[in-house]
Request: fold
Amino acid sequence: MQNDGNFVLRDTNSRAIWQTFSQPTDTLLPGQIVAGGTKLFSNANGNVNFSTGNFMLEMQFDGNLVLSAYHFSDPGYWFTSTTSSNNVSLVFNNQTSFLYLVNGTNDNIYIMTRDLPNPVGDYYHRATIDDHGNFQQYVYHKNNGSVWERVWRAVDEPCTVNAVCGVYGFCASNDNETFTCNCLPGYIPLDPNMPSKGCRPEIVVNYCADPNMRNFTVQVIDDADFPLEGFADLARVQNVDIEGCKKAVMEDCYSMAASLRDSTCNKKRMPLLNARKSASTKGKTAFIKVPMKIDNTTSPQGDRKKSSNTRVQLKAGLYTSSIAAFLFGLLAIYFHPTARKLVTRKSTNDTMIGINFRAFTYQELREATNGFNKTLGRGSSGKVYGGTLCLQNIRINVDVITTSDMIHVAYNF
Reply:
């Protein structure tokens, strides 16, 4: 680690094989030189999230130093316009701590830093592209410093940074030092904890279809503007005032917003970017369509609830139908002639098995044999009588054998 802040890896011959000055992230230190093709990226969220953010500083091969919101294919919201020179590099001078551009012959072609506190050696110096898209130079007193103080910045008006508040965001700044990000009327934040991520429509309305043609109002925002960009404009209406521009937006179902500049109404394409209210928008007027009311039946939440209820009803109907079909199938099988024969046969067998082990009273046997009236014979165990039993509507012939201590019944089917 060198005294200038450069971390260097060297081989056995002390030759540098890798160094942080050649791989900058978001910050430059005195002594660094940024050659053509080098890019610096902002972090995502100040001291909270150091991952790669939305903004880029690029030393282009054509000699132009450009700040851009690269996620949006942005050609640049700040640039040095030094494309007429070759082999241009950005220099952070380690003697003077000035930032400037030099060409291939080392001529100074663009000066950034104009003034620094003296003596320069009493201060720490750095230049950083921050998460708000600005490239700024700071100093910090080595003995008495308490905060980093800005001595130069690329963008003087923070709300002119492209997409600084995201899609459908609204940037507002009263002093060109601080700014706030809010949502345009009719829109809500994607992330309430990080407004710069942008916004989304609170209600999705088709302005070109009935009955929503007049289910909205056009809100007027004074001293506000959408940037004048050729491709961002859907159409232009000349020689109109505030009411005329408002009427033009209301009658065009494809236009969601517009800005009025010098009697020209610039109707905007979607999505809306860079809506702002700051020093440069004084005297301008912005217009935006806003739904007049929230209807739960047409809102995304209402649609989700309706869709959820429909799915529950479909599942319940499917389960009920399945159970009913299963029961009908059982009934059909049960009442089929073949099934009935099997059931009858099983019932008969069950009866036979059941009565094989039944105990009868003396009175039942007396009645079955008509008072032991019919003697069939006599064996070693005793006399055998004949008779008839009636069980479950089935008449069965029985032989009753009497002994000295019990009576046995044998069935004859």
